[in-house]
Fold this sequence. Notes:
CATH class of the largest domain in chain B: Alpha Beta
Strand content of chain B: 15-25%
Strand content of chain A: 15-25%
CATH architecture of chain A: Alpha-Beta Complex
Distance between the termini of chain B: 48 Å
Structural class of chain A: alpha+beta
CATH topology of the largest domain in chain B: Aspartate Aminotransferase, domain 2
Number of helices of chain A: 7
Number of strands of chain B: 17
Order of helices and strands of chain A: HHEEEHHHHHE
Number of strands of chain A: 4
Largest sheet of chain B: 7 strands, mixed
Mean pLDDT of chain A: 91
CATH class of chain A: Alpha Beta
Number of helices of chain B: 15
Helix content of chain A: 40-55%
Strand order of the largest sheet of chain B: 4-10-9-8-7-5-6
Shape of chain B: globular
Oligomer: heterodimer
CATH topology of chain A: Sufe protein. Chain: A
Shape of chain A: globular
Radius of gyration of chain B: 22 Å
Largest interface: A-B, 21 and 21 residues
Distance between the termini of chain A: 30 Å
Number of domains of chain A: 1
Low-confidence stretches of chain A: none
Mean pLDDT of chain B: 95
Helix content of chain B: 40-55%
CATH superfamily of the largest domain in chain B: Type I PLP-dependent aspartate aminotransferase-like (Major domain)
Amino acid sequence: MLDDLRDLYQEVILDHGKNPRNFGHAEGANREAKGENPMCGDKFVVSLKLNDDDVVESCAFLGKGCAISTASASMMTEIVKGRTAEQARALFAAFHDLCTKDEDEQSPHPDVAEDDMERLMVMAGVRQFPVRVKCATLAWHAMRAALDGVETASSDIY
Amino acid sequence: MPREIDHMIQPFDVAAVRADFPILSRTVHARKNRPGKPLVFLDSAASAQKPNQVIQAMDRLMTEEYANVHRGVHFLSQRATDAFEAARRKVAKFLGAPGEQTIVFTRNATEAINLVAASYGRNFLKAGDEILVTEMEHHANIVPWQLLGMEKGVVVKPIPIHDDGSLDMDAYADLLTDRVKFVAVTHCSNVLGTVTPVKEIARLAHEKGVPVLADGSQAVVHGPVDVTDLDVDFYVFTGHKLYGPTGVGVLYGKYDMLKRMPPYQGGGEMIQAVSFAGTTFKAPPMRFEAGTPPIVEAVGLGAAIDYVEALGRDAIAAHEHDLLAYATDKLSGLDGVRLYGTAPGKGPILSFTLEGVHPHDVGTIVDQYGVAVRVGRHCAEPLMDRFGISATVRASFALYNTRQEADALAESLRAAKEFFG
Lengths: 158, 421
């Protein structure tokens, strides 16, 4: 029983949940979107700066969420920094797969660096807790919406 | 075979009651090499579990006496009609309603409120009229009125609550101006457990000729309700929270009100005569029951009512009150627990937050211990805003819960606190 919980709430997640990185408004942000999880009411605002080369120069988030959503948001802001918009979108797709599909069902994501995927693997425990997938992907939906120039995203949609 | 319900003994025999609910003996989270945890079901305010008496009544109807109602001349149609109409009479008696003609079967409480909003609201309310609801209302008693507002320009206003969750009756008196043309209030909050003074609310509204609807979805579960004594114009509840099946709800309406109201939906069953030159409608309650009604579900609800009445609604209330007091005491003793809703005379619903742990994480952790609670906004977002929080954990107690289960909740919360400590 506690093993399942340890799979979900790995030390890295507990750490990011308690001490989120890039918590605030991204420096020089020119994109911003709100993410809502209608199941619990949690809301995040993800802001980022996309430079002329379409590279994410900075990314940050604001809001109050559970340990899973906060940790996921925190790790996301670290990982998308320095990636192009296209790469960030690919990361979203890869991360979504990671949270919802068993390894043998996941499609290949050639645009995603192996290192990034490895870092995100700590979130894979959420697969055993399907109702928590919306928590894990909340900030990611907001990030993608920000890139797409959409104001609000919901983690209810896929 | 379940026990005959008339053999039930006083005082409240919770072990015997639990034996009537087959699901309560199951475990959860069992794995190949690991036994499951006993189920501690503290989410009955969302939907209650079903006793054998309900399951078997529905099974019996479908096995032995099923056909469509109010139509056939054949044997089974008559039997099914008798069973369906007997359920209506049970509901009427259960609510203290003057007769079964005041009872409309709906799909759930939400549909019952939508029915009143659409039928009464569209025809008797106009732009600028105000509808009062409470700040602790379930979305089901907010959004139908807002939809009406968008269509007709009526204005929905909340009656505030005090910090303990009780309704601010002074504010209500102030809000009850000549612009108010309808009052729709919960009888028992699904989040705070607060029981509202519906009789007094109705008395004040009636002084101004304003009709009142009460949402009894939680209230009918936890104690006796008499709509005649409350003198409300409309009263709604849902079957599945009262140990009955999903898919059936109830609208009680004073007959004079129902008679004045046009149909809500059109179809078979609700018509007197149909022609392309014009159609006439049946009298209530049939006027509001278009299409084949929830026949099996209504019979299941009737069995659920028999069940709680055989146990005794006062006896149930006393048992649940004991659980509430015990659990409140247990949780108050835990470090970091903050309770929301402490109004006197409240129902057995405990909403709380655990310091340093998000309600969603609490829900996941206690679930691993077999404890089922609801986490989130509980379809009451304005209430969350009122307290400046995004979500709570809610443990709701029902007639089949025990003090040991309150202990299990407290234990699992301690574990959650430790986990995130």
